[in-house]
Amino acid sequence: MRSELYKLEGAGNDFVLGVGAWARRLDSEPDLVRRLCDRRRGIGADGTLSLEAVATDRVRLGYRNADGGEAVFCANGTRCAARAAVELLGCDPKVVVETGWADIAAEVGESRVSLELPSPDAGPQFPEIAVPEGATALCLMEVGVPHLVAATEGLEDLDLAAIAPPLRHHAALGPAGANVNLYEMAADGSVRVRSWERGVEGETLSCGSGLVAVALVMMAERGTRDIVLIPLSGDRQMVEALGEPPVCATRFTGPARFVAAIDPSDDLLRGI
User: Fold this and answer.
1) What pLDDT digit, counting tens, does each position of 88-131 carry?
2) Is residue 227 part of a domain?
3) Where does 119-169 show beta strands of DSSP type E?
4) Are 32 and 68 members of one domain?
5) Is 239 exposed, middle or buried (0-12, 13-18, 19+ CB in 10 A)?
6) Residue 61 belongs to what domain range?
7) Is the pTM above the cut of 0.90?
8) Strand, helix or coil for residue 155
9) Residues with catalytic annotation?
10) How many structural domains does the chain have?
11) 184, 153 in Cβ contact below 8 A?
12) Among 50, 124, 213, 247, which is most exposed with the fewest C-beta within 10 angstroms?
């Protein structure tokens, strides 16, 4: 197999993806991941994806956050991996992506990718955490990884850098903490979401599994089976319930595209 690096993004959540020897290195070298994800001295990304073909309808995906730490799941990353599986590795448009959380069925279209995600093991949990001013009760939903979710007012004007870190690291969430996703209903019925991600330790343009967590909570409250969510990037993404929310499988659809192929002879990559 050829050994190559690429930059991809899914709704603004961006990744460095490796195949061949690069995939093996991204799997095993957290220092390399940190260097590549650095936005000033590296390529810049929220995380890395290591992709390996298992069969024409199946690939294996490894994910690391920008801090080099492993994570069991990243929904936007999985969408990007599915597109790369089809366009780089010659896989079928319907492909199963093996992740640390579960095997995820993906369908790759011309501009969008749909994932079928398993049901969470449990519904919303309500840890004893003080609610930020203007927000409703905080709940914890696990969609592969844990997400702290709350409705709020004036989402656009929130100082997320001040609000989110104490929540993300709260003792009630255990040592690993959780991602933080605050949301607000828009006039057109869609839901605006801002996300602070662990492992990035900052606000990202989109957190896919966080959007699904928000959707499951909102669909249960509203008695609906589908919802459009819009993260900070402005990309419209759809979550559809495949059962009774909030504890059910979902179909998650959104964009995934290549940004660039990265030349291994580039000065940035020499000697690493």
Assistant:
1) 999 999 999 999 999 999 999 999 999 999 999 999 999 999 99
2) yes
3) 139-143, 145-151
4) yes
5) buried
6) 4-118+257-269
7) yes
8) helix
9) 74, 207
10) 2
11) yes
12) 247
